[in-house]
């Protein structure tokens, strides 16, 4: 973003308010990009220059450095810092990285919260399924016990019926033997009376 009518310190302050720094031209590509921007706003600029983030340090030796990093660069086209001009702000690499990091942290926190919520939902579903499974298993056990009792009752009834059949069979055999004796007696009696 570019603005006009500020001293270097005012420009730096305006950028700081936006959590940015005055632009620092460290590459040829950035120089060309900034040159295109200046050409676009040349009417607003009225031929004035734009402040950058470079400063002149005098101690221990006079150097020209970028304000945000202290990195040295070669001097060109310096103006009095109290004169009014335009400026261009940019995010510092550190601020940009911190912002990107914060965005990633927030994304990760959001993902973690979503995962925790899903985990809680899955745990609740799993608990419900376990309880349902236990309830069904209890019902199956009760049904199995009832079926076992029925089978025991049927076995006892079958045993009782087998005993009754044996008793009836024994009674039948006894009756047949008695009838055979009676028949024999009757034949002997007839043969003796005859």
From TrEMBL:
Residue ranges of the TM segments: none
Entries under InterPro entries matching the protein: C-type_lectin-like (IPR001304), C-type_lectin-like/link_sf (IPR016186), CTDL_fold (IPR016187)
Residue ranges of domain C-type lectin in the record: 7-83
UniProt entry keywords in alphabetical sequence: Coiled coil
SUPFAM superfamilies: C-type lectin-like
Regions annotated as coiled coil: 98-185
Domain of life: Eukaryota
Signal peptide: none
Name of the protein described by the UniProt record: C-type lectin domain-containing protein
Organism: Lucilia cuprina (Green bottle fly)
């Amino acid at each position: 973003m570019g603005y006009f009518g500020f001293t270097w310190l005012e420009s730096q302050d305006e950028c700081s308010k936006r959590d940015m720094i005055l632009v620092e031209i460290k590459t040829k590509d950035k120089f060309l990009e900034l040159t295109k921007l200046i050409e676009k706003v040349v009417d607003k600029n009225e031929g004035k220059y734009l402040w950058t983030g470079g400063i002149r340090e005098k101690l221990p030796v006079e150097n020209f450095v970028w304000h945000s990093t202290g990195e040295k660069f070669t001097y060109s086209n310096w103006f009095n810092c109290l004169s009014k001009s335009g400026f261009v702000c940019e995010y510092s690499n550190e601020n940009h990285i911190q912002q990107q990091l914060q965005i990633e942290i927030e994304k990760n926190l959001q993902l973690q919260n979503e995962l925790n919520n899903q985990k809680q939902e899955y745990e609740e579903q799993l608990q419900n399924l376990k309880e349902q499974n236990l309830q069904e298993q209890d019902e199956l056990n009760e049904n199995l016990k009832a079926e076992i009792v029925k089978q025991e009752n049927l076995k006892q009834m079958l045993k009782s019926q087998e005993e009754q059949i044996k008793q009836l069979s024994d009674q039948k055999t006894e009756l047949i033997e008695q009838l055979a004796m009676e028949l024999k007696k009757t034949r002997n009696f007839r043969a003796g009376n005859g």
